[in-house]
Amino acid sequence: MTGQPVVRVLIVDDDDLMRAGLRAVLSSDDTIEVVGEAADGREAVAVAQRLVPDVVLMDVRMPHLDGIAATRAVSAAVPAARVLVLTTFEDDDYVFGALTAGASGFLLKRTRPERLIEAIHTVAAGDALLSPSVTRAVIDRMAPAAPPDPARAERLRALTARERDVLQLVARGRSNGEIAAELFVEESTVKTHVKRILGKLAARDRAQAVVAAYETGLVRPGTDTGHPS
């Protein structure tokens, strides 16, 4: 054992072969327990309610109920479950919708097995997983259409200057370690800033904070300079 807690996972995908492959990968790791499978969004909601998994691996394009609607339903019905969206394409139009529906992050299906396992533990621990390449492609396309949220704009004004710096880097897909290195602070300090940011923005996790950063104009699509503006 690695000392990591065992994470209970529900696999949701309409492709039988993909579900079998994911189960094989995850079952080979003793920090993961696959507790169930679902072949469409409607079944995913029902199984999630029955099994209450820690993490739901959610496909996007599925019959009966797509991954966005299923993510919204699972997030509402099983708040303790974190949804990790798996998508085939970096420019998948549906991923931003899944993010706003409550997903804690997203990964490409072609990601390495060890990265997938790491991602599952990341979201299970309450952090968001935002693959920079996927995040950038989706936000660049979808953020301009995001409606302004006056309540979020008001909460944004409550952030300190350093908290705004941290949020900008979070929105650009930086990890806590990368943010610490860029701002020349300890990683524990970054974690404290992120916790305060989430509280002030009334955001469930980092993914929701990213949505707020783009909706309020703190970060704009296509402007990844590598430093807070």
UniProtKB/TrEMBL annotation:
Ranges of residues in domain HTH luxR-type: 152-217
InterPro entries: CheY-like_superfamily, NreC/VraR/RcsB-like_REC, Sig_transdc_resp-reg_C-effctor, Sig_transdc_resp-reg_receiver, Tscrpt_reg_LuxR_C, WalR-like
UniProt entry keywords in alphabetical sequence: DNA-binding, Phosphoprotein, Transcription, Transcription regulation
Coiled coil residues, start to end: none
Stretches assigned to the Response regulatory domain: 8-124
GO terms, biological process: phosphorelay signal transduction system; regulation of DNA-templated transcription
Modified positions (4-aspartylphosphate) in chain numbering: D59
SMART domains, per the entry: HTH_LUXR (SM00421), REC (SM00448)
SUPFAM superfamilies registered for this protein in UniProt: C-terminal effector domain of the bipartite response regulators, CheY-like
Molecular functions per Gene Ontology: DNA binding
PROSITE patterns linked: HTH_LUXR_1, HTH_LUXR_2, RESPONSE_REGULATORY
Protein name: LuxR family two component transcriptional regulator
